[in-house]
Each structure stands twice: as structure tokens, then as C-alpha cells.
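Saturday, quiet lab. Running sequence design on the C-alpha cells for the scaffold JK sent over.
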């Protein structure tokens, strides 16, 4: 007959059976579950390593792009500063040229105005001389009582000049 189940007592046979069962279970697990579990763990490890490598590569790429963009920004700043400086220089040059042109134009207009004034003055003097000459002839005609021709007028002037010369000699 068999021995009843005894709790608390461990027999050598029970220990051997438990040990053999455990070893068989481990062997079965190794064959069935351990290899796939290890393969899955290895794949996961490779995936994580690949993700880390990708992240490092992306980080390096991002740092490179950041440096390129900073360099481009600096180049753009330098170019814009150069363009602004060139525009200022151009504006200053244009202002100087326009000022010089304006000065030349003002001088030309002043000269034209001076010439026009001189011409008007000469014309006014000539007109005044003509008017005085006509008035003198009119007065002389009335005093002398005859109309003078150009020859008569010339004779009268010569006679007047001779009298003036004689009167100057007496003095």
C-alpha cells in the first residue's frame, strides 16, 4: 500500500522526483520558450541600439543643420549690412551729385538773370537816349523854330560842342 500524503516530511524520493521534474521542465522551457524569448530579447536589444544610433545620428545632423543655419544667418546679416552700406553710399553720392548739379544750375540761372538784367538796362538806356534825343530835337526845333534833319542835327551838335570847348578854354 502506499503511504499517505504527509505534509511537512520530505523524503529523498520526493526530492529526486522534484529535481528530475524541475530539470525536465527547464529542458523543455529551454527548447520551447528560452530560445524564442532570448531571440526576442536580442531583437529588442538590437532595436533599442538601432534607435539610439539613429537618435545620435539625428542629433548630430540637427547640430550640423543648426550650425549651417547660423552660418547662413550670419552671412545674410553681413550681406544685408553690406547692401545697406552700399545703399547709403549710393544715396550720399547721388545727393552730392544732385547738390552739385543744383549749384551749377543756380549759377547758370544767376548768370542768365544777370545777362537779362544787363540787356534790359542797356535797352532802357538806349530807349532813354532815344527819348532824350527826340525830346532834345523837339525842344531845339521849338527854340530855333525850324525842323532839323539829321544833317542839321549833326551841325547843331558840332556847334554846341565847339561852344562848350570854347567856354572850357576861357575858364
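Result came back. Writing it out in full:
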Amino acid at each position: 500500500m502506499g503511504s499517505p500524503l504527509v505534509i511537512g516530511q520530505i523524503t529523498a524520493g520526493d526530492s529526486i522526483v522534484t529535481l528530475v521534474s524541475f530539470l525536465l521542465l527547464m529542458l523543455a522551457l529551454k527548447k520551447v520558450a528560452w530560445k524564442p524569448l532570448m531571440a526576442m530579447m536580442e531583437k529588442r536589444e538590437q532595436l533599442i541600439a538601432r534607435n539610439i544610433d539613429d537618435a545620435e545620428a539625428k542629433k548630430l545632423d540637427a547640430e550640423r543643420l543648426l550650425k549651417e543655419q547660423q552660418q547662413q544667418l550670419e552671412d545674410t546679416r553681413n550681406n544685408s549690412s553690406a547692401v545697406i552700406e552700399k545703399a547709403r553710399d549710393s544715396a550720399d553720392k547721388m545727393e552730392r551729385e544732385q547738390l552739385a548739379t543744383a549749384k551749377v544750375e543756380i549759377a547758370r540761372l544767376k548768370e542768365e538773370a544777370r545777362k537779362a538784367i544787363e540787356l534790359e538796362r542797356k535797352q532802357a538806356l538806349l530807349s532813354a537816349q532815344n527819348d532824350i534825343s527826340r525830346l532834345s530835337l523837339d525842344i531845339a526845333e521849338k527854340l530855333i523854330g525850324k525842323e532839323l534833319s539829321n544833317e542839321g542835327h549833326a551841325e547843331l551838335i558840332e556847334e554846341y560842342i565847339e561852344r562848350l570847348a570854347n567856354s572850357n578854354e576861357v575858364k
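Notes for JK: The helical segments are 12-144, 150-170. The chain has a mean pLDDT of 84. Ask whether to fix the surface positions before the next round.
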